[in-house]
């Protein structure tokens, strides 16, 4: 399979710090790119598929805050970790309120770096399973696209509860857009100019969840070389969004309940009580009532969270919205991929609207992106869709093979694993070749389209016998 090594971008004007961080992250198994200032960092972001950015605050040309704003404008789910000195911690905290994932205070140790990087990449991975935020446009209300009965009910609830302090619990399958609804609640309230802080509870190790939510004081545990505010403090005056709330361990649920009821808490290792004004929105794709029955979720916390419950319908329950969503995604990927796909053939649209979509909106978005990437015609056709859609089944479908090849495989001596390996190699070769063709043989841009690192693509090209060079997508190498 195509390599899936995560790609980390380090942006810092100190050569020694770039060298140290790069060496550590490379040893930890990441592909690392480095930039000496924010301007170079932004250029690398445009050229590569970056999974995580670690950037200094103070840099020439383009500073860390500008880099943060520009990067999040391009990719709202991109985790960005700020590097700060003691004198600029307040600026780093401000960066968190603007959407940075976390910050590191110099001097930092390798375990702290390792923890934050792992946590950030796990959050990025989980975000990839949810529907991504979209911009309001035709047919959109609250920044949400659709006019089906289920969404009409959702709009009515949002109109009533958005500008209130009421706690909201959003439930629904992965990929239905729970974060989008949480953002709508915040953006249409009087808190919209205050921070919107999100935490994916499933991405935080259980032993770190308390310090993540409530912060910690210096010396509270090994590695706590400075004091650090938690997400409740960062969200002061604004909204705290706790995604995957069902993953919080039972022993932490008591402390969370107290923070919600009393609007106060103490940092880990601290004695000072901190009061906050925070509107909490929680979300889960799990059945909390079943967790309560199993003893892994507190009933009193559930009642405190579920003051207003919003259930998001699965995409298969709102099939009439699929054409609108496809129209939005076509416009998005035409711009990003420099294509001009104007629509979908009726037969292909029939398949798209009748498919069960187990991955919901996120799956639909991925399908449209891949179809636009590899389409050479103005309207998407049935053959541009993946096999599972053409078969109408979400289950694993065989890699398409010519009838003669299939009969040869069945009659040969090789086992199933060998045939699958050959078929996967053929599919990989097609994907890589078409990405290279689409980008005029530019390996850097092809790697970005395939969402792998440049180094990973070069290794795969060597393995498949594809030569690097403009227009050489299908040519044999040495």
TrEMBL record:
Response regulatory domain: residues covered: 7-121
Stored Pfam families: AAA_lid_14, HTH_8, Response_reg, Sigma54_activat
Record-linked SUPFAM superfamilies: CheY-like, Homeodomain-like, P-loop containing nucleoside triphosphate hydrolases
Keyword annotations of the record: ATP-binding, Nucleotide-binding, Phosphoprotein, Transcription, Transcription regulation
InterPro entries (UniProt xref): AAA+_ATPase, AAA_lid_NorR, CheY-like_superfamily, Homeodomain-like_sf, HTH_Fis, P-loop_NTPase, Sig_transdc_resp-reg_receiver, Sigma_54_int
Sigma-54 factor interaction domain sequence ranges: 144-373
4-aspartylphosphate found at: 56
The name this protein goes by in its record: Sigma-54 dependent transcriptional regulator
Species this chain originates from: Pendulispora brunnea
């Amino acid at each position: 399979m195509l390599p899936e090594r995560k790609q980390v971008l380090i942006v810092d004007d100190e050569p020694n710090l770039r060298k140290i961080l790069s060496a550590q992250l490379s040893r930890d198994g990441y592909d690392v790119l480095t930039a000496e200032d924010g301007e170079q960092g932004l250029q690398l972001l445009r050229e590569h598929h970056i999974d995580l950015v670690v950037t200094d605050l103070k840099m020439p040309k383009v500073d860390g805050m500008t880099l943060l704003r520009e990067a999040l404008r391009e990719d709202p789910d991109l985790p960005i970790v700020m590097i700060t000195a003691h004198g600029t911690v307040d600026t780093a905290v401000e960066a968190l309120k603007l959407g940075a994932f976390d910050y590191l205070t110099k001097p930092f140790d390798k375990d702290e770096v390792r923890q934050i990087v792992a946590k950030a990449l796990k959050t990025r991975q989980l975000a990839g399973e949810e529907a991504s935020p979209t911009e309001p446009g035709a047919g959109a209300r609250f920044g949400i696209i659709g006019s089906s009965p289920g969404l009409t009910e959702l709009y009515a609830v949002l109109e009533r509860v958005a500008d209130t302090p009421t706690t909201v619990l959003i439930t629904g399958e992965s990929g239905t857009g729970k974060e989008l609804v949480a953002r709508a609640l915040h953006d249409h309230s009087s808190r919209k100019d205050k921070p919107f802080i999100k935490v994916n509870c499933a991405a935080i190790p259980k032993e770190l969840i308390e310090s993540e939510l409530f912060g910690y004081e210096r010396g509270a545990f090994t590695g706590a070389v400075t004091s650090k505010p938690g997400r409740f403090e960062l969200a002061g005056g604004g909204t705290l969004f706790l995604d995957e709330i069902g993953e919080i361990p039972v022993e932490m649920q008591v402390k969370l309940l107290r923070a919600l009821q009393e609007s106060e808490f103490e940092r880990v290792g601290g004695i000072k009580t901190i009061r906050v004004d925070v509107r909490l929105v929680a979300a889960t794709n799990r059945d909390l009532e079943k967790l309560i029955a199993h003893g892994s979720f507190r009933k009193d916390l559930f009642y405190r969270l579920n003051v207003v419950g919003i259930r998001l319908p699965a995409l298969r329950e709102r099939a009439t919205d699929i054409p609108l969503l496809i129209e939005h995604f076509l416009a998005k990927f035409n711009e990003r991929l420099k294509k001009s796909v104007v629509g979908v053939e009726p037969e292909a649209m029939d398949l798209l609207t009748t498919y069960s979509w187990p991955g919901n909106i996120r799956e639909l978005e991925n399908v449209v992106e891949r179809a636009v990437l590899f389409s050479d015609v103005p309207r998407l056709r049935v053959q541009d869709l993946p096999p599972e859609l053409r078969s109408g089944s979400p289950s694993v479908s065989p890699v398409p093979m010519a009838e003669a090849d299939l009969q040869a495989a069945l009659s040969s001596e090789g086992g199933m694993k060998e045939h699958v390996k050959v078929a996967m190699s053929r599919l990989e070769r097609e994907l890589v070749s078409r990405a290279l063709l689409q980008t005029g043989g530019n390996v850097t841009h092809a790697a970005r389209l395939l969402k792998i690192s440049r180094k990973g693509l070069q290794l795969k090209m060597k393995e498949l016998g594809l030569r690097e060079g403009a227009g050489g997508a299908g040519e044999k190498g040495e």
